[in-house]
# Entry
Amino acid sequence: MSFWRALLGRSKPVKPDLDALFGLPSAALTLRAGAGLTPTGTGSVAFRASEGAAFADVERDVTALLNTGDGPPVEQTTDDYGYTWLVLRAGGGDPAGAELTGTDITGLVTDLHAVNSTLEANGYGPSLLCSLVGFTDGGGRSAALVYLYKRGTFYPFAPLGGQRRDNALELQVEAAVSGDLPMEEDRSRWFPVYGAPGL
# Structure
């Protein structure tokens, strides 16, 4: 079968590796040192909600699980393309610049992993689009590390406002964290996520 795949120019799809998300705390340290970017404490997961009671039950269970404890409640929004975003905050999630600890980031990543793995375990993996964690330099520049579920890779996204992006910052982020995370080599897949919650 691999002969035919090679002959027809098709490749086997990459299997998502959700454990790659656990490289984010290390990448956050690298970004702080190399690019002056610190985590905002906000992350989000985007997926296409399915019709039916079964999916609604899973979505409700995930939200209820994440809302246990003292942290802020999970926010849910829908974008212009019909994707649902679950927005999670670490350690109070103060985007105004409170210093986050490694434990806060690890907790955020654990929550992102829980959302993805719960949807995947219940058969909704094909509905997952991406997860992202936001970063800022405190001076107006912001960026996100975006995990593409179907590719199992990350890419940087740095919005400039409107429908523009900071390509130089994206390349700087890629160079800084390429040793910490599996980066998406096909830059045509670095999709803009303008207006994504958590950025």
